[in-house]
Each structure stands twice: as C-alpha cells, then as structure tokens.
Amino acid sequence: MSANEVTPFRIEIPQSELDDLRRRLEAARWPAEIEETRRADGITTEAMRSLVDRWLHGFDWRSQEAGLNRFPQVVTEVDGQRLHAVHRPSPRADAEPLVLLHGWPSTFAEFRRVIDELAEPADGPAFHVIAPSLPGYGFSGPVRERGWGAHRIARAVAELVHRLGYDRYLAHGGDAGYQVAAALARVDRERVAGIHLNLGGVGLAGLHRDEPPADEVEELALRRYADYVRDKSAYALLNATRPQTVAYALADSPAGQLAWIAEKFLDWADPAHPVPADDVLTTASIYWFTRTAASSARFYQEEYTANRAPGTGPTLERTYVEVPTAVAVFPGEIVPPVRRWAQERYHIVRWTELPAGGHFSALERPDLMLSALRGFAAALSPA
User: Fold this and answer.
1) Alpha-helical regions (H) of 7-142
2) Which of 142, 165, 243, 370 is the most exposed place for a label (fewest CB within 10 A)?
3) At 314, phi and psi to the nearest 5?
C-alpha cells in the first residue's frame, strides 16, 4: 500500500481459521466448579456453556461476515499503522460526514444497525458514515508500538477523514470512542463541527469522588462509581497494568476470549434490552480472528496510570473541549454522567436523557441512538 492510498477492503476469514476455532472450542477445558456460580463471581458457567454451544452449533460466521460486507469498507496506513473503516456515503446532497467511534470490548460492528439508517433515512438529517476500527482493534490489526492513546488515534482518524475527501465532520463515540471523539475536538478543532458522546460517567465521577454530592443525581453517580471500583473494575486495572499477561490466555483460548468480553456485554447492557448472543459472538470472533486481545487492552495502558485508581479518568479529560458537544444519557450506563461535572470539561449544547439502553446503546436501542444523533445534527444546523 503506497503512502496516503485508501483501498477497498472485504472481510474474508480463511476457512482454516474457522476450522481451528471449532477445534479449540470442542476441546475447551472447563474449570472445576463449586456447586453454583453467581454473577458476582464473574460470568456464570451456565451463561458460558450456552454461548459456547451457540458458537459451535448455531452461530454462522459466514452469514455475519456477509452482513458486515454489505457496508463498503476501506483500509489505509496512517503513522505506520493499518487503519480499517466502513465508509458508507449517503446519496443525499445535503449529507454531513459523521465518524462513529467504538470502544472496548466492542468493534465497528456495534454500529451495524444504525449505519444504513444514518446514510439513507426516510426523513431527517443524512450522513456520510465513517466507522473506523480503532488502531489495535479488529481489522485495523494489532498495534506494533507504544503510544497509541486517544490523541494519536484521533490524529490518525482525522487523517483518514481527510483522505476520504471531507473538510468538516461530526464525531460520535462511546467508551474509548468518546475519549477519541473528545481528542478529535482538540487535535482537529478547525474541522470538527461537533461531537456527540455516550459519555460514560466513570471518569468524571472518579475526578469528583472525594467531593460531597450536590444533589441526588451526583449521589447516585458516586454510589455507582464506588460499586464499580469495588467490584467491577478489575479488568481495567489488569488492562492498564498487565495487558501482556492476560494476552497469552486470550490469544490461545477462544473460550477465554469470549468470557473476557461477554461478561461486559452482560453487565453493562440495559437488562431490559440485552445484547443478542450473535452480536456478542460476532464481537468475540472479530477479536479472535484478528488477534487483537492484547493490543486493544493497551489503550488502557496508554490512557491510565498505574498509580491512579481504576476509573478516575483518562488524561484527556483534564482539559476543556471547546467544540459544541452533545451528551446522550442512557440509564443503563455503568455510571450515569452528571451534567455539572461534564460542563466543566465540555462545551455542552445538548443533553438528552433517554428512557432505555446501556453501554452498548447502538446494539441495544438503535432507534434511540438514531434519534439522539439526528437531534444533535439538527441542533447544529442553521435555523
């Protein structure tokens, strides 16, 4: 691939990889168990056996692959790193470019249910959709050197958008994606018209954890944050401090890879709108086939320091974002965001409280995600 070249891409996993996955799943060793495992212990044996059985006997990767390949995709090389993305242009002349940024343990496939609706809506704003695989994730492949934190990723995404021919654009992100979207607003401020965030409240609550709450909203956020740190944050500390150690198990065992991420889909989704099993298995398959378990975890290593408690906030949240920012608040989020805290760091122009959905809202409630994104675009448009 020559410098600055953007080339078409299709997902084509060799059959030998599928055969190897089946062999490993059939030979999986299960842990010796106490009489009953509980959710508080981690993902239960019952849940894991059900998912592995589905992966072996019901899940059709080729069907999922074909579904993902319906979306036009590209690859390019930026800053020595391969960068993959869906690029779904809209036929509408008034469409605006929109970058969709996933997080961990997700992939670009999280947006599969909203891409077409954003590009060709029956009415309302239309978008030229760009959905990258973050460097170190999925089909962007493992990162080969250190330093791929939010700002470096943002510069790479900004270059991709430039190579695709867009001068001004919007960006949306959740989880690690919201950190990259916020970084885009800093490193490419002249071209970013606005950012829309599934603003997880973990980082903001961590920064305010020693303050007395001003109201019931802040009290709830601090209580949920304390529960997260006490009982649910071990993965973040391990990703941030010892990503290489866990990588050996994840790279060698598809059941281990599945457990590592499926627990998060179970814990972080709105219980009323769980993520379908095949979406979880598609995500696990992408991580497995691309061998990106370790490099995806390294984002935590870049953004958090070992002497900071889990969830106390990435470095980028210490500076103010000046571009117009919208926040979509989903009630099932790990820690609910607090507007007063967010306004200290973002130029908030729209704050939308949604009635349902959690951390993976584009999979759980794509209708609400579409509504939030369209509302934000309409709010930014001239009257």
Assistant:
1) 15-26, 45-57, 61-69, 115-119
2) 165
3) -70, 160
* 313, pLDDT greater than 60: no
Distance CA 324, CA 193 (A): 7
Report H helices in 120-271: 150-163, 176-187, 202-207, 216-231, 234-241, 243-252, 254-268
Ramachandran region, residue 38 (left: φ > 0; alpha: ψ -120 to 50; beta: rest): beta
pLDDT at 305 over 80: no
Q: Give the right CATH number for 7-20+40-380 from 2.60.40.10, 3.40.50.2300, 3.40.50.1820, 3.40.50.12580.
A: 3.40.50.1820
Q: Which two tokens stand for residue 340?
A: 């007063």
- Among residues 172, 219, 165, which one has the least CA distance to residue 192? 172
Q: What is the pLDDT of residue 310?
A: 45
Burial-class residue 2 by CB neighbours within 10 Å (0-12, 13-18, 19+).
exposed
**Measured between alpha carbons, how far is 104 from 227 in angstroms, rounded to an integer?**
20
Statement: residue 239 has pLDDT above 60: yes
Paired tokens of 285: 């398959």
* Chain segment 90-110, per-residue pLDDT in tens: 999 999 999 999 999 999 999
